[in-house]
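Justification of resources, computational component.

The compute hours requested in this renewal are based largely on the per-chain cost of generating structure records like the one below. Each record pairs the submitted sequence with a full structure-token output. That output is archived, and it is also reused by downstream analysis tasks.
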Amino acid sequence: MTYEALTAPAHDRGITTLTLDAPANRNALSARLVGDLSAALETCAADDSVRAVVLTHTGNTFCAGADLKSPPDPAAYVALMRGVLALPKPVVARVTGHVRAGGLGLLAACDISVAGPGASFALTESRLGLAPTVISLPLLPRLDPAAASRYFLTGERFDAAEAARIGLVTVADEDVDKALVPVLDGLRRASPQGLMASKELVTATVLQSFDQHAEDLIARSAALFASAEAREGMTAFLERRDPAWVW
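The structure output for this chain reads:
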């Protein structure tokens, strides 16, 4: 299968690597990227030769959040995050660049994540008149509560070490690929049945939360996106200026 926003999947001894490759918009979550990644994950789920999936990126940005010019349907993005969680195989994020807004939801849905010194993170929704609505489903169970309050509200940028401290990423390391070696070796040594059953245990509560709250959060997200403040925030972002409410 040919993907427009992903490079061709690479396979190495049971590990399939999916690479986000939409440099024109910094791997932002467009309808195309969400569709391509969802389709690729479905293929991995059905392929017995795939033991685990590594999700990485081209360029200096893992994911810039929602594509404001071509945003995905919120329900499709929720389905993507839920699909990562429900995939019967582990998903490991390899992050060497920036992650913003909705990109943190994709990252948090992954089972294990390794971030390098070039990685940075920010939940910028509040600065656009929005909120981290649907991405709160995978994010809040991972994050230290005090850190969640701070970064949800302020939109501050933080580095890989801080991301590891607050629970967003599993490992922060100067050498991402070296740090991945024992992780991938462990996954290759595990049985498919063992991996699936173990993942079901660690994702069960989060998946229940998706099923209980996703519809309400999708509605909240839509209402925020349709508001006058959000239109001003997104316009200001695209025009590279401060929105009207900045003092």
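The mean pLDDT is 96. The longest strand covers residues 15-20.
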